[in-house]
Hints:
This protein is of the alpha+beta class and 151 residues long. The chain is 36% helix and 20% strand.
Amino acid sequence: xxxxxxxxxxxxxxxxxxxxxxxxxxxxxxxxxxxxxxxxxxxxxxxxxxxxxxxxxxxxxxxxxxxxxxxxxxxxxxxxxxxxxxxxxxxxxxxxxxxxxxxxxxxxxxxxxxxxxxxxxxxxxxxxxxxxxxxxxxxxxxxxxxxxxxx
Length: 151
């Protein structure tokens, strides 16, 4: 599906999404016109979903990040849908993942400090529907956070 030129473009684009089209084309060794055509194709086929700014939550005053592993009470058929719909409404929930196994859902939650986290946990998280069990894991350090693929 991808040829060597597409891979070169993606490698350079992943490494620095802020490059201008001319800079990206030069680094990928293609013309600006060829770059534009290939970027359009990569978006159309769904290889590239979008280009986003990476925000440092701590720089904005969110010093606490917690992963919550949630097991749902699945005795009701709508448990997953109900839980996910309500979890999406909590602005401080920045990521939701679902799993097969003992843990059903993982939420990434950010907070300004521990008092803010406790407020979120008591007022919002514990009120989410169908929770059977919940485990909080406090983030200490992010050792690796690389979304780029080795192309």
